[in-house]
């Protein structure tokens, strides 16, 4: 066998192993999903990062983006929120980056004035600019 053929054979044999980390990352995300909004699975760290960013803006009296986040969440849908409001909404991005402005996407964390998470909601599947509650992980 020539060297190029040997290298090609080795790469072909290793291709399942080389793809393994990406496969494991997807599997890990799916197995540790805390909330699913539409088809997006969020880890607790994703939710915590969005909550912290939104609460920091709230504490500092700052708002970002065209829709001025965080802003008060009016709960016109009548969710069964177990902690008292007022509540504030802030984007949680399906890119898993923290929102600092621009397009907010469909998903939001909702929190109280003391920074307590109330719920995670999405516009995905809702009508008339309403929200639906995201689903928690199944045991």
UniProtKB/TrEMBL annotation:
Protein's recorded name: ribonuclease T1
Species of origin: Exophiala viscosa
GO molecular function: hydrolase activity; ribonuclease T1 activity; RNA binding
Any Pfam family the entry gives: Ribonuclease
This enzyme's EC code(s): 4.6.1.24
UniProt signal peptide: 1-19
Family: Belongs to the ribonuclease N1/T1 family.
Keywords: Disulfide bond, Endonuclease, Hydrolase, Lyase, Nuclease, Signal
UniProt keyword Oxidoreductase, yes or no: no
Catalytic activity: [RNA] containing guanosine + H2O = an [RNA fragment]-3'-guanosine-3'-phosphate + a 5'-hydroxy-ribonucleotide-3'-[RNA fragment]
